[in-house]
Structure formats: C-alpha cells, structure tokens
C-alpha cells in the first residue's frame, strides 16, 4: 500500500505554528489585562486606606490642616489615576478580545485543513483498497484460467 502524503502538509504546519503564536499572544494579552486589573485594585485599596487615614485625622483633636490638604490632594490624584486605569483596563480587555478572535480564526483555518487531510486520506485509503482488490481479483482470474 502506498504511503499517504497530504498535498498541503506544509500549509497545515504553517497554520499550526500560526495558531500556537496566536495562543501565545492571547496568553500575553490576558496576563497584561490581569496586571492592569491588579493595578486598579491596588489603587482602590490605596483610596480606601486614605479615606480611613483622613477620617482618623479628622477625628483627632489636633487637626493638621496641611496633612488634611495633602490627603485631599492625594485623593484627587488617586481618583484621576483610577479613571485613567479603568480606561487602560478596558483597552486591555479589547486587546484580549481581539487576540481571542485572531486565535479563533487560526483554529478554524487549521481545522479546515485537517478536515481536508482526513478526506484526502480516506480517499487515498479507498483507492488503495480498490487497487488491492483489483490485483487480488486479477490473481484469482489467472489461477482459474491456469487450472
């Protein structure tokens, strides 16, 4: 029986490498998104801690106006940074979705070629079986005619 060789094997291998690259890109994008999420959480924690500290400063009998103003200015900067970080996180989410779609496209391309390979392989197998059957039939006819 002849060995099956897929005519588009090199293309399939390229598609597999593209898929692997896109998986890696998606993983990187997801890691970046997670980093940005942790950064946002850290900012929220700092804001909460600042509110506690500011509340404590206001409750103390000795009011340090300079400290309270510094806290207030820091709170304003933190809130601005949080808004900016939310935008960064949303952009990271869009980037993840873009990479996910690219991966889905690469998977689809690879699967199309694999399906084609399976069909070609089945066709090859049927042809080889038919050829072998034809040879066996011919050998059987020769034996009968020789006898």
Please characterize this protein's 3D structure.
- The protein is an all-alpha fold.
- It has one domain (about 10-110).
- The chain is built from 2 helices and no strands.
- The longest helix has about 80 residues, at about 65-145.
Element layout with pairings:
Blueprint: H1 9-59, H2 65-146
Helix pairs in contact: 1-2
Give me the strand/helix succession: HH
- Gyration radius from CA atoms, angstroms: 34 Å
Which structural class should the secondary elements be placed in?
Answer: mainly alpha
Strand segment count: 0
Q: Write down the overall mean pLDDT.
A: 92
Count of domain modules: 1
Q: Are there runs of 5+ residues with pLDDT below 50, and where? A: none
Largest sheet: none
Task: Give short descriptive properties of this protein.
147 residues; mainly alpha
Provide a quick synopsis of the model.
By secondary structure, the chain is mainly α. The chain contains two helices and no strands.
């Amino acid at each position: 029986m002849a060995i099956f060789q897929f005519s588009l094997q090199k293309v399939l291998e390229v598609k597999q490498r593209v898929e692997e690259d896109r998986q890696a890109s998606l993983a990187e994008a997801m890691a970046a998104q997670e980093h940005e999420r942790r950064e946002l959480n850290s900012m929220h924690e700092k804001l909460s801690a600042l509110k506690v500290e500011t509340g404590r400063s206001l409750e103390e009998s000795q009011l340090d106006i300079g400290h309270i103003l510094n806290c207030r200015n820091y709170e304003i900067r933190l809130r601005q940074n949080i808004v900016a970080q939310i935008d960064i996180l949303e952009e990271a989410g869009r980037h993840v979705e873009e990479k996910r779609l690219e991966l889905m496209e690469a998977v689809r391309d690879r699967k199309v070629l694999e399906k084609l390979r399976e069909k070609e392989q089945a066709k090859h197998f049927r042809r080889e079986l038919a050829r072998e059957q034809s040879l066996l039939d011919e050998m059987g006819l020769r034996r009968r005619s020789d006898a």
